[in-house]
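Continuing the series of single-chain predictions for the mutant panel. This is the parent chain; the variants come on the following pages.
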Amino acid sequence: MVKLNHVTIRVRDWQTSRDWYAATLGLTVEFEVPERRTAALKDDADVTLFVSEGDGDGFGPSCALFFEVDDVEATHRRLAERGVPFVATPQRLFWGYGAELDDPDGYRIGLWDARSMREHGGG
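Parent structure:
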């Protein structure tokens, strides 16, 4: 069996990123290692996202993260009502049907749900 366990991304400010992922996407802080400027956040599938502060040299987002939600339209509506900016509202995108937003460091976050993906087709 192979199962994704965790992902680490380099961020400018680990506390800002920790707070953004917890407040915006509802991830739960699993633990923190302040001396390493790192926080671990867990999603509903028990996958951990580590946000680890980099030194700033040559910084740039190097991946996109995709989160499955119960209802992409409702999630978009709820976040937009809270003032969260979106790069793309729920629509057909090159990877399928969903919405996109950026985290504080510019990592692209894709949101999708299984029902909408089936109804609107994949990439």
